[in-house]
């Protein structure tokens, strides 16, 4: 799984030309991954302002608005891939535009047996 981190609303600060370039790169990578069969799924997440954080303390659920901590980078979405090697996943993450500004996290998804831990 490639987890995308960025700052909410950053694309609105880009010029139209910069937005077109950024989203064009994303579309190109997604087309490549679809063609190769490596892309299993991808989703963007809603704005962090719509987040609810749930904690259970002494058996009582406590729900608060927003993410757990204030951070400039937020988990913004993911790509679920099936790659031959971890190096391939790293290569894809390095090409994703968010890696140039913020971060991409590459993490294996555990199998049903959970032996990866």
How is this structure best described in words?
The protein is of the alpha+beta class. It is built from 3 helices and 6 strands, in the order E-H-E-E-E-E-H-H-E. The two termini are 15 Å apart.
Helix proportion: 25-40%
Shape: flat
Low-confidence stretches: none
Major sheet characteristics: 4 strands, antiparallel
Q: Could you write a compact summary of the structure shown?
A:
The protein has helices spanning 16-36, 86-95, 98-101; strands at residues 2-6, 39-44, 52-57, 60-65, 74-81, 103-106. The protein is of the alpha+beta class and 117 residues long.
Key features of this structure:
single chain, 117 residues, alpha+beta, 4-stranded antiparallel beta sheet, two-stranded antiparallel sheet, 3 helices, 6 strands, 30% strand, flat
Question: Topology, pairings included?
Answer:
Blueprint: E1 2-6, H1 16-36, E2 39-44, E3 52-57, E4 60-65, E5 74-81, H2 86-95, H3 98-101, E6 103-106
Antiparallel strand pairs: 1-5, 1-6, 2-5, 3-4
């Amino acid at each position: 799984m490639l987890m995308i981190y960025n700052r909410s609303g950053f694309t609105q600060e880009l010029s139209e030309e910069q937005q077109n370039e950024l989203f064009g790169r994303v579309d190109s990578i997604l087309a490549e991954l679809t063609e190769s069969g490596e892309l299993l799924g991808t989703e963007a997440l809603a704005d962090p302002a719509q987040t609810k954080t749930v904690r259970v303390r002494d058996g009582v659920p406590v729900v608060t608005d927003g993410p757990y901590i204030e951070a400039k980078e937020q988990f913004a979405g993911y790509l679920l891939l099936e790659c031959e090697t971890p190096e391939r996943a790293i290569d894809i993450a390095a090409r994703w535009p968010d890696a140039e500004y913020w971060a991409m996290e590459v993490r294996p998804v555990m199998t049903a047996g959970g032996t990866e831990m």
